[in-house]
């Protein structure tokens, strides 16, 4: 299996992972250009607003509404990170991810939570997605922006169990949808900061 | 051990003292008597195809560099510098000709040989003070492979792996040898769960009974072609040699039709026909059983299933290999790999990988609900009430130990070992009986290895000079 080279990684959280995934062929490849937009830029304000609203839906587990924020050609990817020597040139497990999803597989995950038998979330976790370090970038296409962010998920289950914490950087490609629909997520790369996850499963979204 | 001998007798009768799933003393015995002797899976040759490729894997606390040398040999080298005991490799994987200790700069070739010792002459007086020649990182006491699966044992006198696996090797081929090229392994996803390691091993070995309940949701969302998870009771469980597993009953048809039914394209079916023995083909083609989950004692498991990965009637089979690596009595690190036939078409590999992600592993929709149960069980097993409770693990047995259904005859099941149709806890009992056998036998002291120099005092066992 080919190792995804990260030497040439552009700045930011995106990297070559989505383009290299065997399941990423359908995904839009629009990339960032230039430096991050000023915080006063209208596009940055809209992107930041979008991320905060999304975090609310994920905290509340309102996944049907969340699914509506995703484009039909979405690639939702969370590589498996590995510790490698400095200069090894790669930092993810070759050919493996935690999530490597399209709209259909995400819709099945959401549908499962809608059943009465998704035991892992019954009782539901208490979730809090903290979103910070938001940087917005223009692209060659005025209807697309690339947004980097950091996310910290606090997941508490039951009464006395130790809570799980998942820290990650994300790169999102947001697409302006026609009419009043606003922005939608067309590509997300989640660079989790752990090699070995300290949560019983990823029955959550980041 | 007085309490333990009762415990082991209970386990052998299929009555499981609930506290074995969260007990410091039991865990100490597992460390001392089980993981010190059994063959433990650490990786697959396809993970390290080129000379210099390595992955770092653990057996309990012991870290090993599993590396392919320039001579193409696979070795497992204890990841501890011979000088001051520092880890010589702190990455999880990569390619290296040498491993250099960051502490004092001793360096080792990727076959373990010590080649660099700074100031050898000035500090040690050269070979007269410290013989560098012939020194190597400690190899795992035993290493052996089957179908490219790499196992190590901490017991230098461990029987050959093939002998240890016994007739379970017959079933291993379904997962790891669908063509002459065998599998390629990707991953692993690694995550830690607050559950005892035995629960996963038992579940994969034989628990067909949990499927209709635990996994209702994945059936409801249309991931499977069959509308009812109850179909599991038409399958059989088998135990052979040092492992056992579960199967699904396939609809009537020829061998080819049945392999196609689970989603294998013709080109893969043809290779299976050329690779598997008559008996291996008959389990599918004549008897109509297809392997699903399985475990090899003590903590290696497999799963094979065939979900829908797109909005269509087609299904795609996938294989996962995983270990339940004990961290403590109440914590396990899961290492879950995706495996696929190396000769499979690229499109099949991609969709099979997708099928794996949807069903198993850190995000798998099956696995999510399994782990929730196991964490809960482990948590409850810690207290004093659990010490009073013996869980009934006798499903499939009557009170007089007769079986509820007769075993399948050779005419009904062409695989080795003993197989029963329907729900039963035959395999969980097999697994825990083996566990009891290991826990009963006191460990002999391991031989000590010292890095030349003078004799160390107080050696408990035989001393070997490296």
UniProtKB/TrEMBL annotation, chain A:
Which keywords does this chain's UniProt record carry? Dioxygenase, Oxidoreductase
GO MF terms, alphabetically ordered: dioxygenase activity
A single GO BP: 3-phenylpropionate catabolic process
Pfam family of the protein (one): Ring_hydroxyl_B
Q: Where is this region: Disordered?
A: 1-36
What's the family? Belongs to the bacterial ring-hydroxylating dioxygenase beta subunit family.
Q: What is this protein called?
A: 3-phenylpropionate dioxygenase
- Origin organism is Prauserella flavalba
Lineage of origin: Bacteria, Bacillati, Actinomycetota, Actinomycetes, Pseudonocardiales
From TrEMBL, chain B:
The answer to whether UniProt assigns keyword Cytoplasm to this entry is no
Q: Which Pfam families match?
A: Rieske, Ring_hydroxyl_A
Show the stretches that span the lipid bilayer: none
Keywords of the record: 2Fe-2S, Aromatic hydrocarbons catabolism, Dioxygenase, Iron, Iron-sulfur, Metal-binding, NAD, Oxidoreductase
Q: Does Oxidoreductase count among this protein's keywords? A: yes
The record's GO molecular-function terms, alphabetically, read: 2 iron, 2 sulfur cluster binding; dioxygenase activity; iron ion binding; monooxygenase activity; oxidoreductase activity, acting on paired donors, with incorporation or reduction of molecular oxygen
Residues covered by the Rieske domain: 39-152
The Swiss-Prot or TrEMBL record describes its family as follows: Belongs to the bacterial ring-hydroxylating dioxygenase alpha subunit family.
PANTHER family (alphabetical):
3-PHENYLPROPIONATE_CINNAMIC ACID DIOXYGENASE SUBUNIT ALPHA, CHOLINE MONOOXYGENASE, CHLOROPLASTIC
What name appears for this protein in its UniProt entry? Aromatic-ring-hydroxylating dioxygenase subunit alpha
The species is Prauserella flavalba
């Amino acid at each position: 299996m080919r190792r995804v080279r990260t030497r040439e990684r552009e700045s930011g959280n995106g990297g070559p992972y989505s383009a290299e995934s065997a399941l990423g062929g359908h995904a839009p490849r629009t990339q960032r250009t230039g430096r991050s937009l000023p915080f006063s830029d209208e596009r940055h304000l809209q992107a930041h607003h979008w991320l905060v609203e999304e975090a609310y839906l994920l905290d509340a587990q309102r996944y049907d509404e969340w699914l509506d924020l995703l484009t039909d050609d979405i690639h939702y990817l969370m590589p498996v990170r590995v510790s490698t020597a400095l200069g090894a040139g790669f930092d993810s497990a070759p050919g493996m991810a935690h999530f490597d999803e399209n709209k259909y597989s995400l819709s099945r995950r959401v549908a499962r939570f809608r059943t009465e038998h998704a035991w892992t979330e019954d009782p539901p976790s208490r979730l809090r997605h903290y979103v910070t370090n938001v940087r917005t970038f223009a692209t060659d296409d005025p209807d697309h922006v690339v947004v980097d962010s950091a996310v910290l998920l606090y997941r508490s289950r039951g009464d006395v169990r130790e809570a799980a914490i998942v820290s990650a950087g994300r790169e999102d490609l947001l697409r302006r949808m026609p009419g009043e629909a606003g922005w939608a997520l067309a590509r997300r790369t989640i660079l989790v900061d752990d090699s070995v996850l300290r949560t019983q499963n990823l029955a959550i979204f980041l | 051990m007085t309490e333990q001998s009762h415990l082991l007798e209970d386990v052998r009768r299929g009555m499981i003292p609930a506290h074995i799933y969260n007990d410091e003393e039991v865990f100490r015995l597992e460390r001392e008597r089980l993981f010190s002797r059994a063959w433990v899976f650490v990786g697959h040759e396809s993970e390290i195809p080129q000379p210099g490729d390595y992955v770092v894997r653990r057996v309990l606390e012991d870290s090993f560099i599993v590396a392919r040398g320039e001579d193409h040999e696979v070795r497992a080298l204890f990841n501890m510098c011979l000088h001051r005991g520092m880890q010589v490799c702190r990455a999880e994987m990569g390619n290296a000709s040498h491993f250099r200790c960051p502490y004092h700069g001793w360096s080792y070739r990727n076959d373990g040989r010590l080649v660099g010792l700074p100031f050898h002459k000035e500090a040690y007086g050269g070979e007269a003070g410290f013989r560098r020649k012939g020194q190597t990182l400690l190899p795992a006491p035993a290493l052996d492979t089957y179908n490219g699966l790499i196992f190590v044992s901490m017991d230098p006198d461990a029987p050959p792996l093939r002998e240890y696996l016994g007739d379970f090797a017959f079933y291993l081929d379904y997962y790891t040898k669908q063509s002459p090229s065998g599998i390629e392994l990707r991953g692993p996803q690694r995550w830690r769960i607050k559950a005892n390691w035995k629960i996963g091993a038992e579940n994969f070995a034989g628990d067909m009974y949990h499927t209709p309940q635990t996994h209702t949701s994945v059936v409801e969302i249309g991931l499977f072609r069959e509308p009812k998870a109850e179909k599991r009771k038409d399958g059989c469980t088998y135990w052979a040699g040092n492992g056992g597993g579960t199967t699904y009953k396939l609809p009537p048809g020829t061998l080819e039709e049945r392999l196609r039914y689970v989603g294998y394209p013709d080109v893969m079916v043809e290779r299976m026909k050329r690779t598997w023995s008559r008996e291996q083909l008959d389990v599918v083609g004549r008897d109509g059983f297809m392997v699903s989950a399985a475990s090899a004692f003590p903590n290696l498991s497999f799963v094979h299933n065939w979900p829908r990965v797109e909005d269509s009637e087609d299904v795609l089979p996938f294989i996962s290999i995983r270990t339940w690596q004990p961290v403590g009595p109440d914590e396990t690190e899961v290492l879950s790999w995706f495996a696929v036939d190396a000769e499979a078409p690229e499109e099949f590999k991609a969709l099979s990988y997708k099928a794996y992600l949807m069903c198993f592993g850190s995000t798998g929709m099956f696995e999510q609900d399994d782990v929730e149960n196991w964490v809960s069980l482990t948590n409850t097993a810690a207290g004093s009430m659990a010490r009073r409770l013996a869980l009934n693990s006798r499903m499939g047995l009557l009170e007089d130990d007769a079986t509820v259904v007769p075993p399948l005859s050779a005419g009904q099941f062409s695989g080795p070992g003993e197989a029963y149709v329907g729900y039963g806890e035959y395999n969980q009992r097999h697994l825990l009986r083996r566990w009891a056998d290991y826990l009963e036998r006191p460990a002999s002291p391991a031989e000590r290895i010292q890095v030349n120099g003078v004799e160390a005092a107080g050696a408990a066992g035989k001393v070997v000079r490296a």
